[in-house]
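Teaching soon. Got one?

===
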Amino acid sequence: MNIRISVRRFHPDSGEPPRWQEYEIPHAPRMTVLEALLHIYERLDPTLAFRFGCRFSKCGLCAVEVNGRPRMACFTEVRDRMRIGPLSRMPVVRDLVVDRAGFLESLRALELYLPDSQTPPSAPAVVRCPEAREKLLLCIECLGCNATCPETCPFDPGRAGPYVFVKLAQLHFDPRDGRDRRAQARKLGIERCLECRKCYCINGIDIQRHAIAVLAAAESVHPEQPCRS
């Protein structure tokens, strides 16, 4: 059985606006969107541009929008009449490829990493709220959450979307990080996220509960205190 899918095509150097191109491909049981794209590239149209890596929904590189919603191409079954496009609110390099590297580079000033300490710890670190942090570590940096956020503005660190708040929450729960990540989140305008509730994670993180609500709370969470996330 054959199915038809539409893929959003765009080449910035062509001077032409984005367009939808339809392809007819053979369908197999449990065939994924990524497998469909690979069939198009290998058999029908070698000019189609897209990214993929692990094929096991672990690297985040193959994130696209399927019928207007972020999905992992390697983990989403392809259906007849699907429309596959690049992630919204991200600069498009070509077709389904977005400028991930440029976006992440623009966040360098936010220091979304642990400090480089030359002194070894005197005792094992006690993770704050291990259950909440374990949930946050499901983030595979696909940037799909940013595609669901109406406030995201690429290359503006002050409107970098829920991805930044997930990273800040990860660091907030890490005892090796000495920075005040809640104060940092407030400077980035996390208050406007409390009522929005439009963002979501395609890998199962409850962004509102485990990131935004935690960072927007007034009190601090210490290792010896019960987790309130």
The helical segments are 33-44, 100-106, 130-136, 144-147, 162-172, 181-187, 207-216. Residues 90 and 154 are 6 Å apart (CA to CA).
